[in-house]
UniProtKB/TrEMBL annotation:
Entry keyword set: Membrane, Transmembrane, Transmembrane helix
Organism: Rhizobium giardinii
Transmembrane segments: 7-30, 42-67, 79-97
Name listed for the protein in its UniProt record: Uncharacterized protein
């Protein structure tokens, strides 16, 4: 089954938008503030970095060449995007709650 027209561009745009949201969060959160880090700070950074890794995989997954009749990678890219969104927002939630 072929992906809908614009699915690849939409997924790439959504991943770029979430990258901007994640970077704005890390900049606002105070990644560069002086002082020691608490364990909650490490959890926030790890969640965000794993989310950014999933984010980087979205364009790579969705633009991987497939055979003419082969299954497209749009579903896998959607799952990676969903994982990235959940991890970035989870890091935001952890930072708000701590």
């Amino acid at each position: 089954m072929r992906a809908p027209s614009g699915a690849v561009a939409g997924l790439c745009s959504a991943s770029a938008t979430m990258f901007a949201v994640g970077m704005a969060f890390l900049g606002y959160w105070g990644l560069y503030e002086p002082g020691g880090w608490r364990s909650a700070d490490l959890v926030i950074v790890v969640l965000a970095l794993v989310g950014f890794a999933a984010l980087g995989s979205v364009p790579w997954i969705v633009t991987t060449p497939v055979a003419d009749d082969g299954e497209e990678k749009v579903a896998a890219a959607r799952r990676a995007l969903a994982l990235e969104v959940v991890l970035i927002w989870l890091s935001v939630l952890v930072s708000v709650l701590t």
